[in-house]
Design goal:
With about 220 residues, the protein is mostly helical. It has 8 helices and 2 strands; from the N terminus they run αααααβααβα. It has a two-stranded antiparallel sheet. The N terminus is likely disordered.
Length: about 220
Amino acid sequence: MKLPFPEKRIWFNYSLLVFVVFSMFFVSFFPLSWHRQMYDWLFTIIYLNAALAMEKYRKPILIVAVIAMFFELGSTWLDLETISFISRGLNVIFFVYIVFNFIFMIARSKEVNAKVILESINGYLLLGLVFSLMIASSMMYDPTSFKFPETALVYSDQVNNFSDYLYYGLVTLSTLGYGDVVPTMPFSKSLSVFTSIAGQLYIAIIIAMLVGKYASQKNED
């Protein structure tokens, strides 16, 4: 029996969650020399799953996802700084759009179900990915914008390991703030503050919407 697309979409949400979680929490267990290619291919899969998980404008989003995918892979193959900047910019714009779409889909939903919960989690994790990409772009623009621990420099001549940016982005998004990575420039300090505020606002807004919908659902029952 062929499933209608709305029912298929939840499986794209599940798949998106799996690959985002893997890219954030498990890539770091592999040898450092594998990381760049692993992130490239994982981002490619994440682009496609995120586009297919959308309710509206799937075709235009899918086209943007394919363009971003080629820039992401091209930045590795050609190793050109200009392409890397364009790739990071496209990544940020694409994922910001996806996060806002998840928020709108949650707001439009009439009940709290598995799909809505998945969209909430994916939106939060992708928001962490957005800020990690912004941190990576900051380091490309000015390698002194963030001061990483000396131990990070043991593994690379320059701090260009995306897992370091993911670590700092997620720690700041959750306002945990260990303090081992320090923003040193005015723009990097502003980015860090914006990351922490955005993380708290997302949680507050999403929880308020979910609780409101769940309470309304209970009253109707």
